[in-house]
Amino acid sequence: MSRSLPPSKKSTKNSPTRPNLFNFYYRVYGRLTTGLDVPFKLDRHAVRAGQTHVHEALREALINALIHADHQSSKAIKVIKKADIFTFSNPGRLRIPISRLYEGGVSDPRNPNLQRMFQVLGLGEKAGSGFQKILRAWKEQGWIEPLVTEQLDLETTFIRLPMASLIPQEVEQELKGIVGDSYQTLSELDRMILVITHRFGEVSNAEIRRYREEEHPKVIGERLKVLADMGCLLRSGQGRGTHYRLGTKQSLPLLPDSEHLSADSEHLSADSEHYTRLKEVAAPAREKKRISKHLITQINLQLCSDDFMTIRTLSGLLNRTPDSIRNHYVNQMVKDGRLTPRYPSQPNHPNQGYKTVKVQKNDK
Questions:
Q1: SS3 letters for 147-164?
Q2: Which CATH number goes with the domain that contains 348?
Q3: pLDDT band at residue 28 using 50, 70 and 90 as cut-offs
Q4: What's residue 256's pLDDT?
Q5: In this model, does residue 361 exceed pLDDT 50?
Q6: Would the pLDDT of 288 be above 50?
Q7: Is 122 in a helix, a strand, or coil?
Q8: Separation of alpha carbons 123 and 138, rounded Å
């Protein structure tokens, strides 16, 4: 599909066929999203949301092309849809450095009135945040990062959104099977570390650096530690002799995020007394498909009474899907103050856990 908005021309009064930016937006956006093959998200009521983040990203890319275009130019705004890439181009160069665009928080639209008009219609994001929506959506899908370029001789800006991964599909599927829901929260560096580990079986910090020369050893070391703490990697050795290999599907429910339960406790392993006790607490829910919501809520509170528990841990103990645990129980208990998150300011933190809030009784 290829669509272009011709340069502005004078039209006869009351002409019903004159070019209109909003008509162009609605017609093109509908065609952009037709047949879009991405999984829908569920809202907190476990109902399919109307749009995914990819839908939002395409909306932002189209609106950006319209509000940043030089409408006095003789060149057209072009939108091209192919099987594996979307391309948006508009006359006029960016008014901020490309690096600042990727950082976010700064915007200098060529047509601020158009931006406000789209916002009034509930279609545009606040200044400086639209491109971040695009980056987020593409990161979640594991696709190659969007590319913004300027063609100086043509005074034209291009945004290319490739729907392809740098990681082979079969490798990515295996990694998603190991990492689970946390895969979408991983950075590009995290994913490349997992791919390199997958390829060679076992790696060290120095071996990762051979393929990521631009990264500082300290940064790679920090990411290796995070991935090991999450359970994505299994660690062996000490110091410079430390090596890492991929975790397994079997290890994740038992070592959810491979996180310490507290500063002085042991890992939550399958044969620990702590895990055995937790399984006993969760037994009524794990062994029955039908059980009252009130009872599962009380079991959740008991499981989280001593330590921060991840969604994956609760899912494994209760024999319920992570989405069910999150949407039907944990979110509500956080909202009403019965659970507190480990990282309150980072709700999507990959090591997020939840702990029961102790009720203080007043002494009389």
A1: EEEEEHHHCEEEEEEECC
A2: 1.10.10
A3: very high
A4: 38
A5: yes
A6: yes
A7: coil
A8: 19
Strand 354-356 relative to strand 339-341, pairing? antiparallel
End-to-end CA distance of the chain: 74
- Domain ends where: 162, 190, 214? 162
* pLDDT value of residue 331: 92
CA–CA separation, 95 and 153 (whole Å): 16
pLDDT at 69: 94
Asked if residue 68 and residue 15 are part of one domain, the reply reads: yes
Asked if 114 and 67 count as a contact pair (C-beta separation under 8 A), the reply is yes
Domain extent for 335: 265-356
316 versus 254: the higher-pLDDT residue is 316
Question: Phi first, then psi: what are they for 130, rounded to 5°?
Answer: -60, -45
35: left (phi > 0), else alpha (psi -120 to 50), else beta? left
Q: Residue 221 belongs to a domain with what CATH number? A: 1.10.10.10
pTM recorded for the entire structure? 0.51
Instruction: For Cα atoms 307, 313, 315, give the angle at the middle one, nearest 5 degrees.
Output: 130
Instruction: Tell me how many domains the chain contains.
Output: 3
- The answer as to whether 364 is a domain residue is no
DSSP secondary structure string for all residues of 192-229:
HHHHHHHHHS-B-HHHHHTT-TTS-HHHHHHHHHHHHH
Are residues 181 and 306 located together in one domain of the fold?
no
